[in-house]
Design brief:
six-stranded mixed sheet, globular, binds adenosine-5'-triphosphate, nucleotide-binding, ATP-binding, P-loop_NTPase, ABC transporter ATP-binding protein
Length: 243
């Protein structure tokens, strides 16, 4: 990874994203550090998923500067896709494929079959941790929303990416799935990855992350420590930012 001069794996300056007449993101600034988890918090339509899609190299910025793992997302989206692990907010799973087939394909695309120890033991461990071991060979068409979310997190973390992007990973997920996701975030932080978690759930955002950036109407309205956004005082502060 070629880190930019100030060393931050995620740098966003004055990001704007427009879809026709819709201004989805209207000036987001963000810096996220290696070895830390940062939350993007905001209500529905705040611009969180669009920002995450830009960071994943999936949607190009309309304007602004976005550097992920040392790569400019506009100039080199393929290098960005290689460097990140991305759990999209919706979609991403093939209904006729099983979790194991998803993992096999992901490992092959990432050339993980050449690494030691083999990817398959890690894949099996992750499926067990996320309680998907029993359905490893069942097509995902019949999966509940929460099961799909858990598999999307497993796929994002499989290759131990430098930048982990989890968009609404807790949405509709039961407490055991939430616990497994929290553990996966902790593991990624501990090995020095930069983690970004997008969510509308303040309490889980402050549990998972040390820094919280609040988006409203496509723009950043605040960046605070998780402590400042915790408890009743944090809830009041958050409500104040949304009014
Ligand atoms: N492909 C698109 N075409 C048109 N408008 C879009 C598109 N994607 C997002 N938008 C609009 O951009 C705005 C921001 O959407 P975005 O999905 O980024 O918000 P969000 O904070 O992730 O919301 P949620 O929590 O509901 O997922 C919304 O008004 C949305 O309707």
């Amino acid at each position: 990874m070629t880190l930019p001069p100030d060393g931050h794996p995620v740098q966003v300056r004055d990001l704007h994203v427009r879809f026709g007449e819709v201004e989805a993101v209207t000036g987001v600034d963000l810096v996220a550090e290696a070895g830390h988890a940062t939350a993007l918090l905001g209500r529905n339509g705040a611009g969180k998923s669009t920002t995450m899609r830009v960071l994943a190299g999936v949607v190009p910025p309309t304007s602004g500067e976005v550097v992920v793992a040392g790569h400019d997302v506009r100039r080199d989206p393929i290098a960005v896709k290689r460097a990140v692990g991305y759990c999209p907010d919706v979609g991403g799973l093939v209904p006729r494929a099983t979790p194991w087939e998803h993992l096999q394909l992901s490992a092959r695309l990432r050339r993980m079959h050449r690494t030691e120890p083999g990817w398959d033991q890690r894949a099996r461990d992750l499926l067990e941790r996320f309680e998907l071991g029993d359905v490893a060979h069942r097509v995902t068409a019949g999966f509940s929303h929460g099961m799909g979310r858990r598999l999307s997190v497993v796929l994002a973390v499989l290759h131990e990416p430098e930048v982990l992007l989890l968009d609404e990973p807790f949405d509709g997920v039961d407490p055991i799935g939430v616990e497994a996701t929290m553990a996966a975030i902790d593991d990624a932080r501990a090995r020095g990855a930069c983690v970004l978690v997008s969510t509308h759930l303040r309490e889980l955002a402050v549990e998972a992350c040390s820094t919280v950036t609040v988006l409203r109407g496509g723009a950043r309205v605040a960046t605070a420590s998780a402590t400042e956004m915790s408890g009743e005082e944090g809830a009041r502060a958050y409500r104040g930012l949304l009014d």
